[in-house]
Amino acid sequence: MSSDRKYVIVTGMSGAGRSAALKMLEDAGFFCVDNLPVPFLTKFFEMSGDLGMNAAVGLDCRAGKGIETLEDKVSFLKEKNVKILFLEASDEILIRRYKETRRTHPLAGVDRVEDGITRERKRIAFLKQNADYIIDTSRLITRELRAELYRIFVQNGAFSNFQVTVLSFGYKYGIPADADLVFDVRFLPNPFYIPELKKLTGNDKPVHDYVMDSEKSRQFLDKLTDMIDFLIPNYMDEGKTNLVIAIGCTGGQHRSVTIANELYEWLSHTEYNARLEHRELH
Question: Tens digits of per-residue pLDDT, 11-26?
Answer without folding.
Answer: 999 999 999 999 999 9
